Give the backbone structure.
Amino acid sequence: MTAFDITLYRPRIGQAEIDAVTDVLRSEWLSAGPVTEDFEGKYAAALGVQSAVAVSSGTAALHLAFLALGLGPGDEVVLPSLNFVSAAAVVALSGATPVFADVKGPHDLCVDPDDVARRITSRTRAVVAMHYGGHAADLTALARLARTHGIALIEDCAHAPVTDSAHGVLGTVGDIGCYSFFATKNLAMGEGGMVVARDPATGDRIRRLRSHALTVSAQQRHRGGPSLYDVDALGLNYRPTEIGCALGRVQLDALPAAQALRRDAVRMYREQLASLPGLTVPYADRPVEEGAHHLFAVVLPEGTDRAALQDRLRAARIQSGVHYPPTHRFTAYQEPHRGGPCRLPVTEDVMGRQLSLPLHPGIGAAEVRQVVGALGDAWQEAA
Ligand SMILES: *Cc1c(COP(=O)(O)O)cnc(C)c1O
């Protein structure tokens, strides 16, 4: 299955997950239904909000957020380039222009509110904060900016399910919070996501756009509701499956324990990596109790041959990753209406030096030692 003994991610699936999925398969209702509704309710409660809308992916969550804002041609959205391509793609697909902003620096890979402020124009409709690796972006400053300019703050919480921070619970501080439950994420459904909106009317709109903006859902028809419906907006099918939500519901229950295991690994990494000269561990100044620790990212010293380092780790059967190749450098984003070309000095400085090390709830002390040992050996050879 894999070329690695130690992989970047590994889902944590137990008998409870297997039983939950099997129960749905026996229930004869496979699309979004009662389990989905219950998962939504439990997720909302965990965040401390009134309601949440489960969707088929994190990308669907972001797309629905921008559709609900009514984004279109002529509009601009400011977002970090050092991000997964998802948010930029759905902004562009909505007809709006992504405007890329820089990140703070090697110690904090989240978007820099000062740089966001410089890129806001009369066309700006929204700003996107992405909580890199599960660490909170500066939401207090970004929310202030958004208020001042009368624009929306969208939180890309793909790395941070149910995560408290100094600014509040991630995803509930901005206008709309979008979560991903992709296979590699801290809460894993294989494919899935969730949206929460501060304004209940926006939440309702998102819920209806998720299912073609039908006035009567398939589930309501199944329960004996009217068989005729109207369509009063242009919607999509971004519904999750009942099978996925059954898995998500169990993963939500298991999240606190899984997060504690991630924190244990992060503590060991931080302690053992302190001996590598010139290595930057982003967010190491924040208590380990803070953040969701989706990634364990490091920033290598200037001049390090990252590819050679990754080759040496690969030879030791250890997987490493890059998060992310910056969006503003992708071929599809070079046209002005896609935000390019542009200069982002901090992003361009760190983009060749970032490296992600294996992190998941199942990683133990021996594996962390092995990763740090292999990195140390590779370090000597690269020096
Ligand atoms: C995973 C991810 C997404 C997209 O989520 P999908 O569920 O894969 O569509 C968006 N943004 C970030 C930061 C992600 O890591």
Q: What stands out?
A: The domain at 255-382 is CATH 3.90.1150.10 (Aspartate Aminotransferase, domain 1). The chain is about 40% helix and 15% strand. The radius of gyration is 21 Å.
